[in-house]
Design a protein that fits this description.
It is built from eleven helices and no strands. It is mainly alpha-helical. The protein has two domains: 47 residues; 200 residues, Up-down Bundle (Growth Hormone, Chain: A), CATH 1.20.1250. It is globular. GO terms for molecular function: transmembrane transporter activity. InterPro entries: MFS (IPR011701), MFS_dom (IPR020846), MFS_trans_sf (IPR036259), Sugar_transporter_CS (IPR005829). Keywords: Cell membrane, Membrane, Transmembrane, Transmembrane helix, Transport. Pfam families: MFS_1 (PF07690).
């Protein structure tokens, strides 16, 4: 989705020009997204229930209001799962929202004396993001394999430390950045984010028993998007104006610390039988 979306915007801007994209051609990517919606709908309609859920259903364990049960009986794993995802979402939106706005804004200083932008052309940044999205996909596959070998929790602890380290070194890539340094930042960030997505798809469901597994994992995933993504997108530019790129990096590192604490509070689920959770 990330690759197709940015690829469509890149092609429309390249073929029709930036002015046309801003004035009317932005509608083309949005209308074409119907194809992605159709693919997603097809995948969801053709999915089969897991055997553990079918067994639970046959035993009469299917719940009528699983969401309320998550909040009343499984609040702790939901909170842990939410904060396990926070750093990943923060990183993603700092790369795609903050870094994009910062890179494209004309070079000038804020009232506090910090750079507000790099003046990189919009099409250039979109192209860099498009290439780095390929790295994201590659590392999702790699992370899934290695997380199965060493454990989801252990793998994610090390990756979360890497997110914090990337946050604290952000000025090296963006403070006086060039297209090359921005590209390096995007590639490293997408690689790290890919390393979280592989095991995360297994870890979140494994935090919950069968009868609330889907509801619990979905709640944790989407609450994390509100805390990690929405807030990051809203305040990162303001943080940069007041405290510079280092301030944004520290914000990312704080999110990584929250995720690290959540991981330390969780248990390894690598060899756990799903019927015993």
């Amino acid at each position: 989705g990330l690759f197709v979306a940015n690829g469509t915007f890149f092609l429309v801007s390249y073929l029709l020009g930036h002015n046309a994209l801003v004035e009317w051609a932005w509608r083309i990517p949005f209308v074409s997204s119907i194809l992605l919606v159709a693919v997603g709908l097809y995948v969801r309609l053709t999915l089969h229930e897991s055997h553990v859920f079918v067994e639970a259903e046959q035993k009469g364990k299917k719940l009528n209001a699983p969401v309320s049960v998550v909040f009343t009986k499984h609040l702790k794993p939901m909170i842990i799962g939410t904060f396990i995802m926070v750093a990943t979402y923060s990183l993603f939106y700092i790369m795609t929202a903050f870094a994009q706005a910062y890179s494209r804004t004309a070079p000038k200083l804020s009232e506090a004396g910090y750079a507000l932008g790099l003046g990189i052309p919009a099409n250039t940044f979109t192209g860099l993001l498009l290439i780095s999205a390929i790295v994201f996909g590659i590392f999702i596959s790699i992370s899934g394999v290695y997380a199965d070998k060493i454990g989801r929790r252990k793998w994610l602890i090390w990756v979360t430390i890497a997110i914090g380290a990337l946050g604290l070194t952000m000025p090296l890539f963006l403070e006086n950045g060039t297209p090359v340094s921005v590209f390096v930042f995007l590639v490293i960030g997408m690689a790290i984010m890919g390393m979280t997505f592989g095991p995360m798809a297994a870890l979140l469901p494994e935090l919950f028993p069968t009868e609330v597994r889907y509801s619990g994992a979905s709640l944790a995933y989407n609450l994390a998007s509100i805390i990690g993504a929405t807030i990051a997108a809203m305040i990162s530019l303001k943080i940069n104006a007041s405290f510079g790129v280092m301030g944004v990096g520290i914000y990312l590192a704080i999110n990584a610390l929250m995720t690290l604490l959540a991981l330390l509070a969780s248990k390894e689920t690598k060899n756990v039988d799903l019927t015993e959770i």
